[in-house]
Structures are given as C-alpha cells and as structure tokens.
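User: Is it possible to get a 3D structure for a protein together with its bound compound? The compound here is 1-O-phosphono-alpha-D-glucopyranose. I've pasted both below.
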Amino acid sequence: MAIQTIPTQPFAGQRPGTSGLRKKVAVFTQPRYLENFVQALFDVLHASGSEAQALNGQTLVLGGDGRFYNRTAVQIILKLAAANGVARVLLGRSGILSTPAVSAVIRRRQAFGGIVLSASHNPGGPEGDFGIKYNAGNGGPAKETLTEAVYARTQVVRELRISDAPDIDLDRLGLQQLEHMQVDVIDPVTDYAAVMRELFDFELLRGMFQRGFRVRVDAMNAVGGPYARAILESELGAPTGTVVHAEPLEDFGGLHPDPNPVNAEDLINHMQGLDAPDFGAAMDGDADRNMVLGRHFVVTPSDSLALMTAHARLIPGYQGGLLGVARSMPTSAAVDRVARALDLPCFETPTGWKFFGNLLDAGCVSLCGEESYGTGSSHVREKDGLWAILFWLNLQGATGKSVETLVREHWRVHGRNYYTRHDYEGIAVDAANALMTDVRAELPALPGRRFGSRQVVLADDFSYTDPVDGSVSGQQGIRLMFDDGARVIFRLSGTGTEGATLRLYLERYEADVAQQDQPVQQALAELAALAEQVAGIRGRTGMTGPTVAT
Ligand code: G1P
Ligand code: ZN
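Assistant: Yes, that's possible. Here is the predicted structure of the complex:
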C-alpha cells in the first residue's frame, strides 16, 4: 500500500449547480473525472481558513443514494481521502446514506463535513445521471463561496493524491483500515431514526397503525426504502408492504424517482381507488423530497409547508412554537399568510436548500420549504422526505382529521393559493438564455401595465441579500407581481444535465371558499396565457406546452 501522486489534466464544466455537480454517468466515469473534483474539494478544504480548521486529521461522512456508480465512486473517494490526510470516514453500509441521513450523521457525530453521492430525482443507471455534493460541518450543503472555490480549483488541478490500497469491504459493519485512515462502516438508519424519535410521538403513531390506519409509502426503488421500512414497519408496527418499491436499485427499476403527480403516477392511482389507503406519500432518489396525499386528494408542497407551520405546536418536536419560517422565492405565498397570522418572521430565499442554512444556523427559522416537493426543519440541514411523512402522520393522529379535511379547513381560514409549475424541458440552451435576457430587458416597462383585470405592481429579477452574512445572490428568477397578489415567475433550472429547462411558476390567491375547488390548471389558465404573452415561450421553443405541469 502506498500513497501516490499522479498527474492529471483539468476537465471543463465541473461547476456545481443548484445542488452539487451532476452529470451523465458517461461523463462521471471518464478516468480521473471524479478524482479531479474530489481532489479539488480536498485542496480547497485544506486551504480554507474560513471553514474552521483544515481537513487534516478530521472525520468525514460518506454515502449515497445507491445509484449506478455509487459503489465504485465510494472506493475512489476513500482512497483519495486516505491520501489527503483525512483521519476517519463514517461510511453508510454498502455506500448507502440518504441525503437527510448524511446531514443527521454529520451533526450527531460532529464530523468535519460529508460527501453525498446523488443526482437526487434524476434518473439513474448507466444511461442516467450521477452526482456529488459536499456538506459542511453544520450538516448542510456547502455555500456558494466554497462551491465556487472548488470549481476554480478544478480548472487548475494538476495532481491527484491517492492510495493504491485494495478496496475496502463496503458491506461489513465496523472498523477497517485504509493507510492511516479508519473507515467506520455504520448502519445507515440508526442516527437518522434517533433524530425522528426525538421529534415525533411514536406512541401515537403506533396506536394509529394498531387501529388499522392504512398508509402507502412509495420509495420509488430508491434510498428511502430502508429508512421507511425500518421506522414505519419495524419500529411503528405498520403492516409489511406499507412501504412499496422499497429496495434501492441502481437504476431505480427504470422509474424516474421524482415524487410528483406525473412520475409517481402509480401512487396517485392507488390513492384514487375505491379501496385507497388513508394516507399516501412518495420520496425521491436520495429521500430528501416528499409528496403527500390523502384519499383522493393531492397536497401541493407549498400548502404542505403552510399547514405544517399552522399546526407545528401539535408535534412534540415543535410544541414550543417556531422561531420563523422560510420558503424559496418561487414557492407559493401560502405560508406567508400563516406566518402573518401567527406573527412569525417569514423569509424568502433563492431556490436551493443551501440558502436556508444560515437562517437555520442563526436560529431565525425552524421550518423551511420549496415548491419542488421539499420540506424540512432545523433537525438537520437538508430537506427531509421521511420527516415530512412522519409530520403528516403525527398531525393526522393528533387532530383525528384526514388530509383532505385539514387542507380544506386551512383554505377556509387562510384562503387558497392556486399554484402550478410548468417545466419546458430539453430546450436549446441558447433559446432559453435568449428568452431570459429578453424578458429581463422588458422588465422596466412592465410596472403599471394591465393584463386583463390585473395590473403589474412589481417586475424584477430576484436578488437576495443573506440577512446573516450579507452575501448577495443575483439573477435568481424573474418575477412579475400583480395587484391581486398573483405572481408569474420565470427561472432556468440549475440541476439538469441536458439542454436547458425553463420553469414557469404561476400563482394566484383565492379567498372565496365557493371558488376554492376549481381544477388547478383551469384556475391558472389566464396567468399561463399572460406568461406566454410576455415571454413567447411557444415561438421560441417550438413546444406547444410544458413537458411537465405539476
Ligand atoms: C430543483 C428545484 C429546487 C431544488 C433542487 C434540488 O432545482 O427547483 O427547488 O432545491 O432541484 O432538489 P432547479 O432544477 O430548479 O435548479
Ligand atoms: Zn433529492
């Protein structure tokens, strides 16, 4: 066994996006592609005076969502870590850790940081995507200053330090040695389950299952399966089979592990049947996203955040009340109304969980959410799919009310924010950029302009100044706001690996209970037409409509 220094050449385009570096598997498996990125990360962590101490002698957490290339990537990263002065790696067994579990392990074990191998909800398998993301000592995604430094380093990296030791046994729990580094293979669920036990009323949940409360959780053949099984079935006594598609597969069994009404169609169908369970939910590839459903009833993520905020005191972990709440800019303003009613601070951040980190660390907020099926709290520094499922179960147990009743009552009290996101996927990068540039150029002329009964009151490109560290993030999405509270937002995705994806977010408020039961796309059709008028999406993309509307 020896530590080797081997020459390498930079690769172009290793800049992390909304959530880490994501590329096609064919890109990631090029010789030295992964190695370069990880070496660049370690170089930056060694050099960073700002991020506490350097990497030498530290503990890192490592694991991924089990997708194709996960096991190979783990072996490579271990050998780089051993050669770069890391003292100890806490590795999820078989290289498996969900994203929220990485966050939980970093925090509970006070590790220096962690590496998550995941491309989240993107498809997996040899033809699919792979990804890597660094999380800091708070358990949360690295800040932009760090990811930009890593990117800069990837452009000049010339040397890899790597051990030529044999592979370690990923499937055997306990300690193994790799050069001077200890590899501690840990059970992926233990730490995470301990956190859940501290937050939720497990006795109440056990009682619900004993009385026959029926749940269907679709893990979409991804990493959430083992967690949901261990907690819901083994610990809380839900019947075997409550968790379906529970075995993590390298290609997710061909499923697109994105929990939305389009990709989780099987779950939607089950929840609409005559014999539908009381509650349904799905998680994504790395188990940080969630979709929740009642019988014959789908909850939008924005409403989910608003309801959680409204009822948080019923949940043991939040019975003392919330410090505040935060949502990403495109997420509907439903939670803002609850925050106002409860007199809670409410923050609006750019898209991406990393922007919640400072607010959580500084004690400004307790709950956060995004429209993209992400909700979470201060218990970790990632969004958390199973946490959201347990929250909704606990809420139903504590109130004795169904999902549909809870949401309809909420609308009655606070009004309904009709909400949809239209994705135009796989459009030419140039066409997408031109659309954004042209709409941006129109912005100064828009305030005051009328579209039917609505008038534009604000038109800008969202810029965020972090209230904790003062950092500024510009060009985070173009928003048009109207005098009746409606909003139209244009944004380009930062997680795709092919072409560009335009996201169009539409929202309008409805206080009248008699008007709260329209089909969502119909209720927002006027705003969709307005967006088309402003941006000319069809003409520019040649598409007749969105590829996905959720
Ligand atoms: C998408 C979502 C965003 C989420 C991110 C990672 O990013 O829109 O809310 O944080 O995935 O799960 P986007 O592709 O829009 O940049
Ligand atoms: Zn995810």
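The pocket of zinc ion (ligand 2) is lined by residues 99, 120-121, 284-286, 288-289 (CB under 6 Å). The CA atoms of residues 265 and 343 lie 38 Å apart.
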